[in-house]
Amino acid sequence: MKSKLLLLVLLLFTSFAFSQSIDVTGTVLDGSGLSLPGVNVKVKGASQSTTTDFDGSFKLTGVPKGATIVLSYIGFRTQEVEVTGTKLTVKMVDDAKSLDEVVVIGYGSQKKREVTGAVAVLDSKTLDVLKPARIEQALQGTISGVNVTTQSGSPGAPLDIRIRGVGTNGQAGPVTFIDGYMGDLNLISPNDIETITVLKDAQAAIYGSIGANGVILVTTKMGKRNSKARVSFNTYTGFQEASRKLPMLDATEYALLLNESYSNGGRALPYPSVTGLGAGTKWQDQVMGTGVPILNHDLSISGGSDKMTYSISGSHLDQEGIVGRDKSGFLRNTARIALGADLTDKIKVKTNVIYTYVNRKTINENGLGSVLFNALNVPATLSPKDENGEFTLVPSTTGLGTEIINPLAQVDNTYNAYNLKKINGNFGLDYKMFDGFVLTSSMGFNSANSESKTFGKQISYGGKVFDVQRSSVTQGAVNDNNYSFDIYGTYTKKIANDHNITGTLGSTIYREWGNGLTATGYDVPNNSWEFADISLTKGLPETVNNTSYIYDERRLSYFGRLQYDYQGRYLLSAILRRDSSTKFGPGNKVGYFPSFTGGWVISDEEFFGDPKSFSFLKLRASYGTLGNDQIPKYGFLGLLSGEATYVLDGTLVNGRAEGQVPNPDIKWEEAKKFDVGFDMRFFNDKVNVVADYFIDTRKDLLIPGIPVSGIVGVGAPGASSPTLNAGTVKNSGFEFAIDYKEKFSDSFSASFGYNVTFLKNEVTKVNNGTGFIEGGSFGVGQQAASRMEAGHAIGYFYGYKTDGIFQNQAEVAAHPSQLALGANAAPGDIRYVDVNGDGVIDSKDRTNIGDPIADATMGFNIQLNYKNLDFAVFTFASIGNEMVRNYERVLSDANRLDYVLDRWTGEGTSTTVPRVTTGATSNNVLSDYFVEDASYVRIQNIQLGYTLSPKVIQKAGITKLRLYAGVNNLYTFTKYKGFDPGASFGPTNQDQVSQSPIGAGIDYGFYPVPRTYLMGLNVNF
């Protein structure tokens, strides 16, 4: 009996010993075998957790044998490892393309495999490689269907984002939401961004009246739960230079050409001797700097406990301009704090607040009379300064006109300043009312104050239009605010293990309000920038010298979304949004925006068989209606905002006139979006393919400035014609993207990406009375250069077709007269086509001579990793876009590009470039002679980095140290003669913000995007 009792006790002790906990230590490595710090390590079903230190090591105490440890880290698949001993080594698997990745879709999220719309995601890894000064730049060439054009290469200049073409001549850019609230993409540091999601089709219908141009959803970086404080410092410095300079005539070439021109015009030679002129002044070198600095710093601290996360960051960007140096620059400082906390098991709160300060200085650019325009047109025979050290005056002769001035003097006499202070963010709360149902509320806000000042120095350039007879200072102050309040409930239910339902129902209140004031003071003391302040000016104005405005707009919305899937195989989604806006009159305030999307995961079907080559295949389709209300405010009301002068009792009195003709019938722009596509993966998820065919039909276009009878007084200064729903535009096309990712060994891995978008843009209706809308300008005194008209691309160029050069007088005599264009033709002149066949060349022969919209855009990207080295190249191409060369002043004495050396000088000498002469010709009217193929391929970014081994840096407490060097905008392959074939800048619309596509693609001497050489450092502690 005693022996049996002793045996039982021994068995109990043995059992207890086997059930005892142990201490576990381990090391976590990334795919290349390097130590991975900051990995969350947690015992499944228990409270024990920790994070790996700088050398990837961790320790957990009191872990039961046989327990499961869960390891998670952003960018890697979450892994579970069973505890079988006291030491573990875990190699994490990259998860950049996992189908379980969560995608933000607006008022919710979905797993990537369940998404039924055309949705693309750009992550922080790509942003880290591209190092864009502006976030918009990172979208170019990385996401199909997205085209980014620069309005200018000057620091801080706006960039235009177009998703699947241009659908309107008003505000055509997408709306941006930052962590759920409406924000500005260009005022956030790229280093603060975790992901950028682009909604390209009817999936965006959840945003109703503002989603027609697409939606960009930005998710900012948050701290990670159960992680120690992580400090990250990223910095780069570099220098900029012009990516391109135009080949102009040097002094000797210019003088010889001018002599020929004067001789052909029957005038005396201006340069009887060209000896000693040499190369002369290279004006582009004079105004464009080299080694122009750019500097960026980012610092962030993040971490979290089991119940709370935090992220605090700050950034500083300082960029000087390559033209104008200290007179052109952009400074941006940001500070951000993001917090998340679980107050209880049912209530979670979060907040994200960003403060941005911007300071920007600009020079005259992108137009006739800009600094670069003058640098191209001033003769090389003139020197920058005269013998007295003063800036040389450009003669006011007929041959040089009154617009061309010394660009260095222009820069020197440029004085302006602009600063913006903005705070924006949101506060959110999630309340889990019961199992499967979460109530979410969020309040977003933006508040911005800006000040501007421009000083017009009293100066004479020798009888030019830029002469300032009286000094002045103009100052402005603007206050803009908005807030949104969202509340919505999300219910998730699984029925019988096969049916999954998610329903979302909510409401949004949005209000935007603000005011602005601009005033001008005259006779600045000492004619000096230091004294340029209205409080010091005492001069009396001769006209009205101040303006102000105030506005208040509101929008009330209700929305619902129902998502259903059967076994994750058949996917359906339906969305309906109702918007009510104060931008429209009483009869048109409300709009309804429905959409439907569906998907079929074919690879889950039994007939698909076991995945061999193909591991995933999903078909999807969508159709829906979205809206656009981005028009000038109060378009349905008549406003007394125009200026007028009246005669009262024999005295002139300043007063008001009707500033806007009302249109009470204006309503939403409506976008019908159709998309069908597929997602496919094969070769063990190494290859990922996404393809879409889309049709986007925009009807009831909101077109401002429709001409009406002058009887109503719209000719008064400040007055404007009404806004009408007067057009339809169709964009259709095909997108294709393929990514290949391969890990060849523990030391070497590579990824390749290619995407292409084919696009056709066509206006199908313009019902404004004339059948077309004009815009844009070419030269001086010529008819509008662009049109919006049915049957053509929006903003196509409208001018004369050419048919070579007249070689002799017999050809001139046999051709229809060109006298109506300004002069009789002569041998060596351009021969124009009689399009309508009426036997005379006149304005009736103007026709389509090109358009600025690309037929195809594409990106090709490569990333390589070998041991501690990483290398990346990002490229972008645009095919089929055309541009009008308008930066050359057609005056006889202006300088020219060197292509003029191939001009016609006698029969058979040239069939492409006309003769030069001071006599009257019709060679300078807008024709396809000035329209060029602006297709290009650009190496956008190339970067080489090296990450030091943790064993080298761990003594300093550093977990990661990466050094890199790179070049942005390395080189552009193009036949276009101008500075930048990728730039585009249309006339400003009445909202004074958006640019019209009617007149885009006309090059007035675009400020080139600089080539930037960078050296940087990434450090994590």
Automatic annotation (TrEMBL):
Could you cite one Gene Ontology molecular function of this protein? siderophore uptake transmembrane transporter activity
Residues annotated as domain TonB-dependent receptor plug:
111-215
Q: Which Pfam families match?
A: CarbopepD_reg_2, Plug
One GO cellular component term, please give it: cell outer membrane
Q: Which UniProt keywords apply?
A: Cell outer membrane, Membrane, Signal, Transmembrane, Transmembrane beta strand, Transport
**GO biological process entries:** siderophore transmembrane transport
Q: Which domain of life is it from?
A: Bacteria
Q: How does it sit in the membrane?
A: Multi-pass membrane protein
Query: Which range is the signal sequence, renumbered to this chain?
Result: 1-19
InterPro entries per record: Beta-barrel_TonB_sf, CarboxyPept-like_regulatory, Plug_dom, Plug_dom_sf, TonB-dep_OMP_SusC/RagA, TonB-dep_OMP_SusC/RagA_CS, TonB-dep_rcpt-like
Compartments in which it is found: Cell outer membrane
UniProt KW Signal keyword: yes
Q: Which family does it belong to?
A: Belongs to the TonB-dependent receptor family.
Q: Which PANTHER family match?
A: HEMOGLOBIN AND HEMOGLOBIN-HAPTOGLOBIN-BINDING PROTEIN 1-RELATED, TONB-DEPENDENT OUTER MEMBRANE RECEPTOR
State what protein this is by name. Answer: SusC/RagA family protein
The organism named in the record is Flavobacterium hercynium
